[in-house]
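User: quick one, fold this
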Amino acid sequence: PSSDREGVLACEVTCVLSLILGGDDFHVYFAEALQTLITRQESEALRIAAIKCYCFMSYSSSFITSALEFTASILTMTSEGVYVTSALRAAAAYQWCFLSTALDAPYVLEMSRSGVFASLSSLLEDTTTASTEVKIAAGTCIAYLWEVADAHSPNLCAEASGELLCEDAEVVSATLALLRSISNESSKRISKKDKKETKSAFKSMLA
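Assistant:
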C-alpha cells in the first residue's frame, strides 16, 4: 500500500470479502501476504490492522489452529527475526483470545501453559514501553484465561486456577499481586486520566 490509511482500509475490505467468499479460500490466497505485512512491515498501524484481518478470516476457516500458533509466536516473541513492539504483542494477545474462543478449553489451557500466560504477565509488568492500553489488553486477556480455567475446573481458588494456566507458580503469584497493585495504582508518574482508566479496568477484572 502507498500509505498506512490505504493499507488499513484494504485490510478492512479484505475482512468483508472473506465473509462473502469463505475463510478457507481467502486463507489460501491472503494468509501469506498478511503474515508478511505483520512480520516485515514497518508501520505499526498497518501491522495491527493486518493481524486483525488475518485472525478474522482464520476464525471461520480450517486454519484456525495455525493462526492461533502464529499469533502466539508474536505475543511470546518466538517468531525468529521479527521485530515486535508492545503494541503489536497486545494486538496479538487480543486476537489470540478471539481465536481461542472457537477451540476446546484443554487446548487453550495447554497453549497458555506453553508461554502465553507468562508472556501476558511480562506485558503487564513492563514499566518501560507498555502503555496503559497495552496493560489493559494484557490484563483483559489474563482475566479471560482465568475464566477459561474456572469454567474447565470450577470452584478452585485463583492460585489453583492459575496452575492450569502456567507451570510456574511464582509467575502466577506475581501476576495476581501485580493485578491487585495496578488496580490500586497511585504513582504520580501516571497521568490522572490513565490512572482512572487503569484502575477501573483492573478492578472490574478482579471483581
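User: anything notable?
Assistant: The chain has ten helices and no strands.
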